[in-house]
Amino acid sequence: MRQFFRIIHNYFFYCGIEKEEYNAVKKNVYVSNFVTWRSLHIFMAVVFGLLFFASILIDFISFNRALYFGAFFYSIFAVSFFYFFEKDSIWPQILIYVSISLLFIFSCLLTKNNPTAPGTTFIVLLLITPIFMIDKPFWMTIELVMAALIYLTWMHGVKPHNIWATDLVNVSIFTIVGTFLNIIANSIRIREFILTREINIQKDTDDMTGLKNKGALTREINSFLADKTCSKGFMFMMDIDRFKAINDTWGHDVGDCVIVQLGNYLNSKVKGDEILGRFGGDEFILVVKNTDDERAAVKLADEIVRGTSENISIGKTDEKISLSIGIAIYHGQEKNYSELFKKADIALYEAKADSDNRFYIYE
Question: Does the domain spanning 214-361 belong to CATH 3.30.70.270?
Answer without folding.
Answer: yes
